[in-house]
Amino acid sequence: MDIGGAVLPGAAGVALVVFAVRLAREPRRLGNAVWLGVALLLTALWLLRAALHLEWLTPVLVGVLAVVAVLVALGLPVALVVNGVRMWRREGRSAGNLLSLGLGVGLVGLEALFFVPLGRWGSALVGIAAVLACYFGFLFLSLLVYSVVYSRIGRRSGFDAVIVLGCGLAGERVPPLLAGRLDRAIRLHDREAKPPLLVVSGGKGSGETVTEAEAMHAYLRDRGVPDGRIVREDRAGTTEENLRFSAALLPAGARRVVVVTSNYHVFRAAVECRRLGLPFHATGSPTARYFLPSALLREFAALILYYRRTTIAACVLIVGAGLALAIFG
Q: 309: buried, middle or exposed (CB in 10 Å: 19+, 13-18, 0-12)?
């Protein structure tokens, strides 16, 4: 009896059922992304195992896997470095803008260490670092896939209020990233027979001559949104403050509320709403492609910090298991 062939599809099915139940109960949970990732990983392993039993398909499969491995090992770090340099030139040298560059350089360095004789303990440490990289890579891909799933579900219309999150100004001008969010809010406003209230949220940041809320208000008004349908929240400096302060300005009858942000920020905004006990969901606007890698990495880092206890426990377990293998193996 092929036990492995029976266990994998069964385990994948269980993970998928758990994911579906959790999704139906509360879609704004990071654990949903993990369960979806586990289900997809087990399904992929099952299909791979089944394919390896087909002799005629094995050479093709091995070739495809080899190409994928080369692209991941060489192409991904190079792509991250190139994107990081582009971010550096276009967006400045802030820590957030250099995430893709730093990760790309780190992956190149880690891969290079596999070809250097380091001795027993050096090899063990490199192995532990590689497992940690795979662990965080799995979490990142799971979150990326689930973010796409989350953006496709939920209410599309019938909102009582729309909260638009600010994201920085160029002096007093609304930059393209923020304009995308406001344009999305305008579409939600215009499609309704009874237009929702628009709450624009954002304080005055460094280098800004007016508050984000004031600039956003002017942008909406210039594009035909009635002044009486716009409410300004001009104190917030973080996503948490955006949500808390905006919620306090909503009328008592506003029960169906959506938060508009950029597509890379949608799931974290939804998680933050859940963490604050707010019954809001989130929707996104398009983002320039070159901006996405660093932005997604920044969102991933923020979500990991939300669940830092779980992250620390997993890292301690991986490091402990690696050191144990090095000592007793």
A: exposed
